[in-house]
Amino acid sequence: MLRTSDVAFSPSVKAAQDRRGSRGHFERRGDWPSEIGDDLAGFLAEATTVYLATASLEGQPYVQHRGGPKGFLRVVDPHTVAFADFAGNRQYVTIGNLDENPRAMLFAMDYETRRRVKLWGTARYVEGDDQLVARLFPEGYAARPERAILFAVSAWDVNCRQHIPQLYPADAVTAAIGALEARIRELEAENALLRRRIPE
Is the pLDDT of residue 8 over 70? Predict the structure, then answer.
């Protein structure tokens, strides 16, 4: 019987799991979801970092970072994630791979909460559809969109957070430091006032 997890668990992978004693765990877990529910949609809406993996027809893998402001990943229906593809280094490895092999993977990261979601499926790109790109483009973002990428989800999974470093966005760190510095100034002013009230 085919399972959605078979997209990752090939016969060779299952054999490796059997040899190392973990196959039973994955059998008990059951199938992976294939639809984008509210929880996954909410996670993707907050994502600022995703890695898009493709491969050539010969199987040569390639991973490309895609990022943007929160909301740059759009869930357009229960099986599709889309985003505007911004101008980059002009190597076009991802685009070339998709021309001959639509199989792809998205690896969405949230370093702040140390969460990751893996999505398997197929991807295609759309060029020349200005209306679609405009719908996907994050408002006010300083980038030049070149095309849209549509990712059809066949399965997704969440796994443990161990070994994920906890990182915070620079603007959040700057805001936290600013708040602490303001509080320090308040306390210093209060301390100075109290000192003035103490008789010599």
Answer: yes
Quote the tokens at residue 165. Answer: 């470093």
Neighbours of 103 (CB within 10 A): 16
This prediction's pTM: 0.86
The residue range of the domain holding 24 is 1-31
Name the domain count of the chain: 3
Determine if residue 54 is left, alpha or beta; phi over 0 gives left, psi from -120 to 50 gives alpha, anything else beta: beta
How far is the C-alpha of 154 from the C-alpha of 173, rounded, in Å?
Answer: 37
> Do residues 104 and 43 both lie within one domain?
yes
For the chain, percent of residues with pLDDT exceeding 90: 80
- Judge whether residue 1 has pLDDT over 70: no
Contact 123, 52 (CB under 8 A): yes
| Residues 39, 26 share a domain | no
Neighbouring C-alpha atoms within 13 Å toward the C-beta of 49? 12
Same domain for 52 and 3:
no
pLDDT band at 158 (very low <50, low <70, confident <90, very high): very high
By C-alpha distance, which of 67, 40, 62, 46 is closest to 123? Answer: 62
* Cα 188 to Cα 110: distance, rounded to the nearest angstrom: 37
3-state secondary structure of 21: coil
- Residue 27: count other Cβ atoms within 10 Å of its Cβ: 13
**Residue 97 carries which side chain, given as an amino acid letter?**
N
